[in-house]
Amino acid sequence: MLEYLRGSEHLRSLETLKRQTKNLLAFFKGREVNGLTGQDIKAYCRQRKDQGRANATINRELAALSSAINHCNREWEWDLPNPVKGRMLREPHHRERYLTRAEAGRLIAVARQQRSGDILADFIEVAVYTGCRRGELLNLDWARVDLTRGVESITLNARHTKSGKPRVVPLNANAASAIKRRATWRAENAPQSPWVFARPGGGQVKSLRSGFEKASKSAGLEDLRIHDLRHTAASWLVTDGVPLEVVKELLGHSSITMTERYAHLAPHRVREAVNRLGHNPVTPENLVRRDNVLEFGKS
Known about the structure:
With 299 residues, the protein is mainly alpha-helical.
């Protein structure tokens, strides 16, 4: 597994991969890969469920193990059995969880009350008002922030976007205010830090999950993940009437199919389309009589 990680250092998702394999390495410590069985995989799943992890999270971890085994077989011509095969857990189809504006406000307020909660609260606010992914924000440095009045924006490095393409994300007043609070904190606490979301010593924040889970629980919000902040942004945009094509560009989706999962939140778009059909209705006055039409080829 460690060799697989070292060979994956070019991946944009390396930090995610390291996080996914951390629990695998702890659970299977001292075991040889060729000795792992299906029962071992089931035992791992039981432990992670007991720890409160969702099936989707466990599946991502199992997928990392499966990829490592396949890597060994492909690159080094080993013949390892893959105990993960056929043992992925069932996931709810298209899990959709997003916050109302009142819930988001409550979450931000509760987060800010926690110890060192300002950074978490500002992160939540920027995520909700930009739709950026967790990794895109935690890897954001000040060189890619423009707080010029009227054109406030952040530029996401291609290395940190899921599509592998750079993306400019405009900042509304809420997101810009949160970024400015980070700038004030930086000036007072870590002026040399390049990171927008930095630790007290100026180092990069790698994870906010534990603080986020604590804030969610305190705010009375069940089954909430950091990625749901992105779903929240998309949902608000669609319900406010923003065209799906614009939402696609803002979120950096590689295809409109990914954005269409939110289409059901905008039934008014269907109503508007039907109403447009009646914009110029057929009436006796605009009908064209057939006997007045000269058909091609006839005289």
